[in-house]
Specification:
Layout lengths: L7 E3 L14 E6 L1 E6 L7 E6 L3 E3 L5 E2 L7 E6 L1
Antiparallel strand pairs: 1-7, 2-5, 2-7, 3-4, 3-6
Length: about 80
């Protein structure tokens, strides 16, 4: 079963603020690492060396500024 996004918005990584809406996936426009918190109250995990143009099929409550080096990240709803 494939996921189809019904919306998207730009993400500004932040270590203390959750995303305005739960992301069903993340689009990474510029290559690098992406640190995210996948569930409320969870622990951050870091995806290393994510290539530009990648869709990470993981929900995200927060994208962390610490350890995130990727750019042009979009939250897919």
């Amino acid at each position: 079963m494939s996921m189809v996004a019904t919306g998207a918005y730009a993400v500004t990584p932040n270590d203390s603020t959750d995303l305005s809406q739960l992301a069903r996936a993340l689009y990474v426009g510029g290559a690098g690492n992406v640190a995210l918190v996948p569930n409320r109250g969870g622990t951050a995990v870091t995806f290393l060396n994510v290539p530009s143009g990648t869709i990470l099929p993981v929900q995200a409550f927060r994208v962390m500024a610490t350890s995130t080096t990727a750019t042009s990240i979009l939250a897919l709803l």
